[in-house]
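re: ur question from earlier - yeah i can do the single chain one, its not a big deal. heres the input i used so u can compare w yours
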Amino acid sequence: MRENTGLLSPGALPKRWDMAEARPLSPALTPPAHPRDPLVWCLALTGLYVLLAGWRLAIPSVPVFDEIHYLPAARELLALWDSGQGEYLNREHPLLGKELIALGMGLFGDNPLGWRIMPLAFGTLALFAAMRALWHASADRFATLAFGVLLGTGFHLVIQSRIAMLDIFMASLLAVAAWQFAGACAEPEKGRRHLALTGLALGLAMGAKWNAIPLAMLPGLAFLVARARAGRRRLFLSRRGAPVPGITLIEAFLWLGIVPLVAYATTFLPGWWLAEYLRPSPLAEQGLIGFHGEILALQQQVLTPHTYQSSWPQWLLNARGVWYFYAEADGAQRGVLLIGNPLTMLLGLPAIVWCLASGVARESWTKLAVVIGYAASLGLWVVAPKPVQFYYHYFVPHFFLLAALALTLSDLRRASWGWWAWGTLAASAGVFAWFYPILTALPLKGPGSFVTWMWIEGWR
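and the output i got, formated as tokens:
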């Protein structure tokens, strides 16, 4: 069930009068506040986001950054579908993301619009799903809409929505999973359906990119911990108690443990179909489980050092960007620089600390979930054996960082510091507007124009 977010304290409850006694009712007898669902505002923010992120989506009209890896793989999938001839490229990642890119190319052609239409669609879904997840988890209108503003102006999401890479599919499906799991907790009467969709989304997220695995484990673990804390004698068969009354632990294991694995395996079905045409075929020769050994080996291979590689401490400080593109194209000098919004990326760090402290003190499971999600998604890269890492690996952690900032701004607003909350949102939008030309490849004045936005050396 939704937690008490502190929107109204007992002393702030409106007085209701017992007419027979001519005295105000006790606050304990006053019905609890039920904030109105900001669904219409969520849809409005999502619509605005589509316009901002999709503006001139087909520019640059040449492959950008890692599109040079994923577009050939998608083309081979289309070729195998059309003619039965092709290669199984980019074996170090699962198939789903490349299948979705290929779908866009099949619908709109092998052109820049076809390459990027599915990333834009999933980026839009990520924004909406993330807002709905926070709403169901917190029942806090201001935090929900603030999260939408912060996420839409946080740089990462807009940039990843405009490039044919795998990360946007993974992040979007994780956001859908968070939305559905939070929905199951908030609306237990619909819990079975929400949990089934949670498991499906988790499996598909892993099918887009393995980076989703640490987060895919969290809903099941959360369910187990919540039931164990309730101290039920029939731990596995009891239908009572948090997080979703009416669902036993065994059934939760089906939805959050088995369904994700089945959904993940299903994403490889096109690979089995391709195996009829590929000789040698990695799937036909090694089987699904054996083929994963090859994926793991490719993930751990030592790569050549890269100009834009970075490490997780640099990500926290937004200290090292990645130039996805900087060249003359489509009649003008253009650039795409991946950095985070320099205001909100830094403000998010104390917000994470605040959510941890206040989450423990007030037993706010929403805040603690945000902190745990941030730690799990970032912790992957602290221990990962992958020697060359990039700032785009901070994409998923930044969702939790900005959720923490949204919750913190909501706390400030309730504490009569509303001008800080509104000022932060306005400033985030202003910084986004200033950087928009080099987030979306708008025309620049010339080759040296990039220095306008080079606030620190690590962004060069």
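Residues 1-29 have pLDDT under 50 and may be disordered. not sure if urs matches, ping me
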